[in-house]
Amino acid sequence: MDFDGEDLSHKALGDRLPSGETHVFRECDLTEADLWGASLAGARFESCVLEQTDFRKADLDGAVFTGGGGMRTRFNDADLIDVTFTDVDLSSAQFGGALVTDVSFTGCRMIGAALTGSRGTGFKVARSNLTLANLGGCSLRGEHIEGVRFDDADLSGCDFTEATLSDCRLIGTRLLNTKFAKADLRGADLGQPDDSKVRAFAGAIINQTQANAILAARGITVL
């Protein structure tokens, strides 16, 4: 079923979405739309307004989101397997309890998004803004992460083991019990090297300039 340019805001859409069909939403307004528990496997959302849209407990396996977005979209407890988000505004989006497996976020604005408490094997992220996001406990193990801003984000308990971070920023980031063993951080801006960061970066690969900054913060000058 296709929806083109429709105003679906504040509507309960479950009864309008028969199961067994692929649904396409193009340039629709889904502000505060109720898609709780909806069958949306393989659905496409193209340049839609997703302001406070409720996708809780929805089946979104294989769904594709391109463009559009909005504040405080709710994906709590939804199934998100093989989902792609490209150039979507997911600011303050909620993913707690969601099954997040092989999900990719590319070019997304994810300021204040919360993925802590999500389940599954994890996700990929590139060229996205995760300032103030909460990724507590998420795994990005072995991932190549490029062009991501983690400024003031909470990465407590995250696993970046053997990951590569290039053109990324970790300024003001919370790194309590975060793992960077064998992670390549040479292409990242590590921000102010305080004690918590130094502990988190144990076992990571850094460059000479980064090492000098860490030593300088402890009053040690390398000549």
Terminal-residue CA separation: 68 Å
Structural class by sheet pairing and helices: mainly beta
Q: Into which percentage range does the β-strand content fall?
A: 15-25%
Tell me the radius of gyration: 19 Å
Give the overall shape, derived from the CA principal axes: elongated
InterPro entries: 5peptide_repeat, Pentapeptide-BTB/POZ_domain
Pfam family, one: Pentapeptide
Question: Topology of this structure?
Answer:
Blueprint: E1 2-4, E2 24-26, E3 44-46, E4 64-66, E5 79-81, E6 84-86, E7 99-106, E8 119-126, E9 144-146, E10 164-169, E11 184-189, H1 195-200, H2 208-216
Parallel strand pairs: 1-2, 2-3, 3-4, 4-6, 5-7, 6-7, 7-8, 9-10, 10-11
InterPro entries: 5peptide_repeat (IPR001646), Pentapeptide-BTB/POZ_domain (IPR051082)
Pfam families: Pentapeptide (PF00805), Pentapeptide_4 (PF13599)
Notes on the structure:
- This protein is 7% helix and 22% strand.
- It has helices at residues 195-200, 208-216, and strands spanning 2-4, 24-26, 44-46, 64-66, 79-81, 84-86, 99-106, 119-126, 144-146, 164-169, 184-189.
Notable features of this structure?
mainly beta; 223 residues; 8-stranded parallel sheet; 3-stranded parallel sheet; single chain
Question: Summed up, what is this model?
Answer:
It contains two helices and eleven strands; from the N terminus they run βββββββββββαα. The chain has 223 residues and is mostly beta strands.
